[in-house]
Design a protein that fits this description.
Blueprint lengths: L68 E3 L7 E2 L1 E7 L4 H11 L7 E8 L2 E8 L2 H4 L2 H5 L5 E7 L5 H4 L5 E5 L2 E11 L2 H10 L10 H10 L5 H9 L4 E8 L4 E5 L8 E5 L4 E4 L2 H6 L2 E6 L4 E6 L2 E6 L8 E2 L1 H6 L5 E2 L2 E2 H15 L6 E4 L5 H11 L7 E3 L6 E3 L8 H6 E3 L1 H4 L3 E6 L6 H12 L4 E6 L12 E2 L7 H4 L2 H8 L3 E4 L2 H8 L6 E2 L1 H4 L9 E3 L5 E2 L2 E2 L9 E3 H12 L1
Parallel strand pairs: 16-27, 19-23, 23-24, 24-26
Antiparallel strand pairs: 1-21, 2-25, 3-6, 3-12, 4-5, 4-6, 7-8, 8-9, 9-10, 10-14, 11-12, 11-13, 14-15, 17-18, 20-22, 28-31, 29-30
InterPro entries: GATase_2_dom, Ntn_hydrolases_N, PRTase-like, PRTase_dom, PurF, PurF_N
Cofactor: [4Fe-4S] cluster
EC number: 2.4.2.14
Amino acid sequence: MAASTASTAVAGCATSSTCLNARIHPSTTSFTLPIKTPQKPLHITQSKNPISEIISTGKSSSDSDADSVISFDGDDKPREECGVVGIYGDAEASRLCYLALHALQHRGQEGAGIVSVLDNVLHSVTGVGLVSEVFSESKLDKLPGDMAIGHVRYSTAGASMLKNVQPFVAGYRFGSVGVAHNGNLVNYQALREELEENGSIFNTSSDTEVVLHLIAISKARPFFLRIVEACEKLEGAYSMVFLTEDKLVAVRDPFGFRPLVMGRRSNGAVVFASETCALDLIEATYEREVYPGEVIVVDKDGVQSVCLMPHFEPKSCIFEHIYFALPNSVVFGRSVYESRRKFGEILATESPVDCDVVIAVPDSGVVAALGYAAKAGVAFQQGLIRSHYVGRTFIEPSQKIRDFGVKLKLSPVRAVLEGKRVVVVDDSIVRGTTSSKIVRLIKEAGAKEVHMRISSPPIIASCYYGVDTPSPGELISNRMSVEEIREFIGCDSLAFLPIDSLKGMLGGDATSFCYACFSGKYPVEPTGKVKRVGDFLDDGLSGSMESIDGGWLSENRSKEEGVKSSA
């Protein structure tokens, strides 16, 4: 059943009359969602998700040839950890969800899942790998119904990843609920400890499971008020979609750290997704963002909106425009393509250099390189060719190959580079190890000079809002000057996008973005333990499994490691 086109969506939560505090006014709402209080029987959830059943797939890491197989990722980049999608009112909801997840595959390649609902039963299929590897025609046949939510995940390696694949599904005394989450809760550990002291049992290390427990113990009515009450206790970044027996609910944190948009198909089906590129693929028309602090409820009565809580000034993640999102997406109301093109133009204006050719580190540096080349009046060419057919693991020959991880993915074009003064545009430098290998690769192809231009300011601090970044001590810009970095990576000149110029380009919206990774000033301070996901990975060559430390690291130990790394 398609959702009604009638909607009470607010134009901005901060001043909307629909704002409420569920704990103070649990029975007061100013919109038309009917309140239903009868208890439901506990439905059987047909699920293969981590909470109800942990299933290992694939070969064990103890296979005899494991030493010759390396985890591969050729980019030394921050990682966006998740992408989410939700669909209501389409008979092919799960298949549309599957296609939307394809469009969001860049936001996570390690795990994927879809939950649908039919006849008050939630059906779930989750697995490890790419969307095309997890789902098949027979798997999608097990996901009936006209409502579905989906999730793609970037995660760590090993068993800790297998049990954290979303969406999660849980049963409680009034029914079942599924959830897919993009973001990171900075008070996760404190909430978990409080819940465990009161008898809650956790099956995963995911902060998303905390949300399910908070919903289950809430006494608020109707269901969406349980979500409101749960989210009032959360701190950090969360863009989430929930699925119940009869409702699809979307919610975004009060700061709006991570993106979440709403669209509609021609048949009236309502779609939520992390990026507009997912709407485009399934022919849904973009309507608007889910506002920071907003809860949107979609059911047979239509679309209703309520403000989660009076929210602060938005602090949307600027890295969505620098690196994470696809260029064809509109994120936080801005074209990602136009933002990156302007970043390149600023670099050409403020950090010019005599050159013969402009190239990009594909794929994320391409649009900024086009902007740089156009502004500088120099030809843009493909000096590096990226292989899109390299898997996440690769068997390395016994005789080691220098810069093996980078060479697997990037191949220099000698005809473009030989004897030339080359400007190389990349989106960011994290540890600097990959950049040094790229510079060496280009010089070995005969380049006369290599000038690096980076379309972001220097990254000096970790992100705690749903982005996988190393500890501060491993961030090269946190412990070296620009000149020291230039010497380390071996280029002839190096320039970053000045943060003041970045803010100037954003104009009046500049204060609505989060720059914590560039400044170390956090809109929401992390407390207790902070997440450590990817700081043991470097150019696809994984460190020892012991270094994962369960995916979490105490804050003081992280600082100690930063000191060691700087020594």
